[in-house]
Amino acid sequence: MKSFYVLLQIAHIFDQLMEKGNLLRGRIRETMGSLKVFSQMLWAELTHTVVDPGRLRALLERRIQIRFDTG
User: Fold this and answer.
1) Is residue 67 part of a domain?
2) Exposure check for the chain: N or C terminus, fewer CB within 10 A?
3) Residue 1 DSSP label
């Protein structure tokens, strides 16, 4: 149950970033047609890709800024 809950929280974060954030929203719609197609492709990548821990650590050390739409 704990694992399911953590995965549910991660899914919620992705949903919030895609719906409320301006993070690639227009570009995703231009290239893939819809957020649904993007989410299906993201799921495929997350379930079939082996992540290199060193590369992931380097990505997580970079500073980013996410802005949310107010409207």
Assistant:
1) no
2) C
3) -
49 part of a folded domain: yes
23: left (phi > 0), else alpha (psi -120 to 50), else beta?
beta
Residue 70 lies in a domain: no
| Interval 4-61: pLDDT, tens | 888 889 888 877 877 776 666 777 778 888 878 888 888 898 888 888 899 889 988 9
| 17 lies in some domain | yes
CB 29 within 8 A of CB 36: no
Task: With beta carbons less than 8 A apart as the criterion, state whether 22 and 67 touch.
Answer: yes
56 alpha carbon, distance to own chain's centre? 14
CB 65 within 8 A of CB 17: no
Helix (H, G, I), strand (E, B) or coil at 68: strand
Domain that holds residue 36: 2-61
